[in-house]
Design brief:
single chain; alpha/beta; about 45% helix; globular
Length: about 140
């Protein structure tokens, strides 16, 4: 099994691949997501990708990886931070977070659940619910 950690931000995806190839960065846009997805797919079925929830900036990547048949999981940032603390990693940078996530997906492989996207109607409904307060204002 190859652990891949992705630290997601608005503009950038910091990636750490646990197969020895190390760290890389991709733009958090269509081109960058396609390039990262192609790299993960090339690793074969052994790849497991873990990323933190990041205010919606991670959704395009989650959907792209899921549609490509890649095992991907999203965790709460608090869970990732707790794992980092438990392994005595107190420093926090994007590269360190990505490496920690790659380690975490291997260590907790049996407990993490594969991401399954909501049906299109559920995503549309969620968008309406999210926009409702703006309409009321």
């Amino acid at each position: 099994m190859i652990g891949i950690g992705v630290d997601v931000s608005k503009d950038r995806l910091d990636v750490f691949v646990g197969d020895g190839s190390g760290a890389a960065q991709y733009a958090n846009d269509g081109k960058g997501i396609r390039a990262l997805t192609a790299r993960v797919v090339a690793l074969g079925g052994e790849a497991r990708v873990l990323l933190e929830a990041s205010g919606g900036y991670e959704l395009a990547l989650l959907l792209a990886l899921e549609q490509a048949g890649v095992w991907v999981c999203q965790v709460n940032p608090r869970q990732a931070r707790d794992y980092a603390r438990a392994t005595a990693r107190l420093a926090k940078t994007d590269a360190i977070d990505a490496a920690m996530l790659a380690e975490m997906v291997i260590a907790l492989a049996a407990r993490l659940r594969r991401y399954v996207s909501a049906a299109p109607w559920q995503r549309e409904l969620a968008e309406f619910v999210r926009r409702r307060p703006q309409a009321l204002d």
